[in-house]
Amino acid sequence: MSNSPSGSTHSSGRDNPSGYLTSTNTNRRNSRESPMAFYEVPQSIANIPTKIISDAKQSLRDMPTTRPYTPRNDSRYTTLSKLNHEPNFFSASSIDYDSESRPSSSRPIETKRRNSKGISDIAAPVAIPPPRLSKLNHQTSQEQTRSSDSTVSNQTRSGDTTVSSQTKPPLPANHQRSSTISSASSNTSSTTSKSSHRNSITTTKDESSDENLIWKNEISPLIEKLITAYKTNDYQQFDQISNVLYNALLKHNLFGKKNNKKRGEFLKTLFGFIESDNSLVKFHVARLSLAFQVSSTNNLRNIIRVIEKLSSNKDNDHFFLQTNIIDLLFETMSRIDDIQQNLESIAYFCTTLKNLTVNNELICLISEKKPFELLKIILKNLRQLKDQAEHRDRLRDCLVPLTDALRNLAENDLNRSEFLDDELIDHLTFILKYFTDKSHGDLMTNVARIFSKLTQHTDCCLKLVQCSSCYRSFLKILVKHESNQALVVRVCFILGNMMAKSEDARLTFMKDSHALKTLTKLLHSYIQLDSLVLKPENLDNDDSTSHDVDIVDDSNLNQFRSIENVINKVIRVLSNLAISQENGLIIIRSDDCIDLLFKILKAPNQHSEELLVHVLMALNNLSYYDDPQSYIIRNAETLAQLLVKYIRNEEKMDCVVEAFRVLGNLSRAKRIRDILMKCKVLVKYIRNEEKMDCVVEAFRVLGNLSRAKRIRDILMKCKVDRLAIHHCRSENIELLYAVIGVLINLTVDEDKRECLKNSDGIDSLIAIYEYSIQTDWQLASLACKAVWNYCDNNYEKTDNQSLWFTKEQLNILFTLFDESLHESNLESTDDKELDELNKQLWNEEYYPVASRLYQRLVDENKYFQSNEKTNNHA
Question: Composition bias, kind Polar residues: at what positions (predicted)?
Fold first, then answer.
């Protein structure tokens, strides 16, 4: 009969990797003096891939949470109505048209253009007294009047005064504007000759040119008719004529001709309509002015302020949905070069964008137009003013609505790829870095809302992780804005997401010497605040405490939820930080921090079940680290007694499950095992099949407890062996891991191995082994360990020979060994990385155990066959 492997049943590289006990028979192998918890990571893991290490640390996990409840802010406003500073920062400039003697520099931008559509079918608004027409500069003649009357009347009768729904005019193109030359030159080149020729033309050119004839015979009569409609409050007629006028100007390519003085006269007329309270009038004034590419600071400010006023009323959304005014607006903003001179215009534009993006239809429309390049340019230009104190307030007035709009655009998943752009992420983190004063609360909250949305997606989250400046900015916000619950809860939610998804984020954040102190102080402050809040009668009456705004009428409940939501998010950051061993060891040595978690557990009636579960999950991650300086280890008895109270409360089953998980870590210590076995609560739970999560966690704790022989004796008296074998038929993989661990430890003792024979335990283990081959090499390895302990007997003793296998069982085992002990039989997939991992697990976890078990069975079987021949011969 062969000797068993020396030292251990496993390879030296993975010596007893799962921490299960093996036989204590010193003749056959050396027992471990201090066996680990069966799920603990062994010391010799240097050569194991990160994936395997991660699997071994399965008890360390991200705390489930929800994004802070943030309904879209549907309020609309104008910039002046939202100013947080003196209104004189915004000019009380004249609404009169400023002459634009020279065309401004223009930067063409490619946008997806949207054809305009007539809106004359909109019901005419109630007529109001016409406001003053300021400085109308029209030169009319009898010929112009007659032409105007005949043109408009004919067009009105023929139905051409509105834009047909079938024929939408295209957007005005960006035309090349001719240069203005101050004086003639004697140069003889052809270019100079042409320029001299243009400059030599006298003022009579306007009256004789084809362009002027168009103005005289077609455009001017329409303008006169437009004025008449305005004066008589005939807004339906005003709408019709405006559409005809727009199409005529577009048809003759007159929008880009800035040097024509008729253009200036018409714009003066349009600006005279700005004071009208009628939205239809304002829309046409704005649309025509944008099409004419107004460029002076005052003109831009007036027109974009008109558009902002329109956007502040949701009843005007059809203007933006059905026409090309958004395209014109984007093109206009792309041509602004002097950022300081046009800060007010930019502020009005940003507010317009914010107002429009509260409408889902408009979010989709604006998203289709790809506005992010324009917005990045605006952000880049605004950043240049950060150090200029005189512009700081107006800079904020631009950034608040702009970030509000970006937050609304982030709700559309089609835009997520746009937020992956490093430049945009950089602009947003720049805002957090330089705008952290208390007066900037709205701005920081907007950026936090954007990131809280985006960091739910791994790709966006990892982009933010790479931004080194954000960590310090988030800490700074938590320090300076501790009382701003809406901001704090979002920043902690963002940090929790980052820490959950990236080891680099966890390590980088904790490199700041103030990181843990800041989180501890924040947690302490909100626990203190929570103790002062009047608690509702039923803390868990609603589904969740994850809402941070009023959603019910009970103000006490809302305040309670809001505070607990912050506490939840802070604890989640701590819990996720602890996934990194370096961080975990730092946190567990912080008495002030861990004591706050104990404090919450000591008052279960003062907190919701959600918060208690999150505290227990954090302690599960933190108690994973067995360090003598740990506050948890030094106070393990106190914590164990608290946890026993939780697992006795079946009304809060989520707490029961998490309490078991923490106890699983604590039960590595003998004094904790004594406490648990005295209360006998574990056996109670493993009998309750209706609460399978608790059954799984209870068996995990028993896996640690059963390393001691006196505990194993107690478990056998409670018939835990039969319960474990019964659960071997479960389809719950986590439960199979746990119960096989208990069986491995029980069968260390020779007097307890018979349970596997009498209760069909061996058949169950063989079934698990057969099922797990090729699908789960770690589970297959555990099954082999249990079988190894079962047959770890001196079969020369007659009493032990009954613990051998039947011929059918041996045939199945040998067949399975033939299939699984050859590397060439490993199944392959299209995923090379997955195949490599599968091969690694086979080499590290399965083969060392299964190959030695196979050899043992071969040797022992020869012994039994030899005895059988001897007996037959006798």
Answer: 19-28, 136-168
